[in-house]
Amino acid sequence: MINYMGINIVNILAISVLSYMVYQNEIIDAKMKRYFLLAIGVTILVTASEIGTVYFEGTGKSMRICYTIFNVIGFSISPIIPVLLSAAFCNRRFSFKNLFTIPLVINFVFTVLSPKFNLIFNISSQNTYERGNYFIVYIISYISSMLVLLKETVKATGRYENKNRFTLYLIFVFIFIGTTIQILMPDVHTTWISVSLAMTIYYAYFCELSEKYDVLTNLFNRRAYEHELQRLEELENAAIIILDVDDFKEINDTYGHQCGDQCLSGIGEIIKDTFGNIGSCYRIGGDEFSVLSESATEDDILHTLSDFLYRIETYRTEDSRMPWVSIGYAFYHKSKVPIENVVEEADKQLYNYKKQHKLNSR
């Protein structure tokens, strides 16, 4: 018992340090920070309640109230932790009002009523724990919360263009196995160590992503672009596409920087929706974007370009402030020229396109 309590106390101290690191982090966005801190806070509370259950178990009738309270805390709020983690890396306003969260509410009610009706758990006259007749409700709520986490994990891999997707899947499998062990074998206390480690890994993963991700456009940034160029240079073939927003300074000067940001965000979304099917998308400058692909053919690019320009034109009919976007592309062949020359060639094609488009617009 003492060993287990000691491990959990160290666990609480460790994730308390993690919470301080999250709080001090100025890179991750406010929503992610808020839900990470909530998840850590609930984990600390549940871990402390489990320490309490271990300490007070079998201590006699006089401690029955304390033992019961700690069990109520643990069973009632522990299933919400995966949901809070899901909310942390969901890139939109997360809604707790969905079918998957209904079992969490039912479990909370059943747990609060358990001291009187022995639903989720039962505390014997000797102050020992037994599973209640409706313990399955807790299991269902746990599975539901893990399904929420799995759903958002899958969405996150798509949002980040499936880069390092196996890392996210491995974290999910780790937390699922670690928490399931204790459900199947109650005497093996693996849950909160697993959850704490998983939260630390999740945090490290999203800190790394934050350094490679442009928040405004939801595309990868210049740093990620440079890294990917180095990787493509080792391949036999690759395609490099450069996009540039026409007269973007005039948009900022005429309509303000907020409008300019809205235009960049909209263009970034269109780039990702279209070119994301053939390569990885980057914002590499203030109004400059790129798409890098190791497999796209010229037919692929021309087909995608047609779709992209149609989407831009549609956007411009809805909002006349939306600028035009010029584009150039070139193909890298390892045996012929360095990749830097290919980037220059794509740039030249872009400015020829820009020049021709301005002439045609007169």
Protein model, in words:
The chain is an alpha+beta fold. The protein folds into two domains: 2-214, Rhopdopsin 7-helix transmembrane proteins; 219-361, Alpha-Beta Plaits. The protein has 13 helices and eight strands. The strands form three sheets. A four-stranded antiparallel sheet has the order 6-7-5-8, sandwiched between helices. It has a two-stranded antiparallel sheet with strand order 1-2. A two-stranded antiparallel ribbon has the order 3-4. A hairpin with a 4-residue loop joins strand 3 and strand 4. Helix 4 runs parallel beside helix 6. The longest helix has 27 residues, at 30-56. It is elongated and about 90 Å long. The model has no long low-confidence stretch (mean pLDDT 89).
CATH topology type of the largest domain? Rhopdopsin 7-helix transmembrane proteins
At the first level of CATH, what is the class of the largest domain?
Answer: Mainly Alpha
- Secondary structure tally: strands: 8
Helical content class: 55-70%
Number of helices: 13
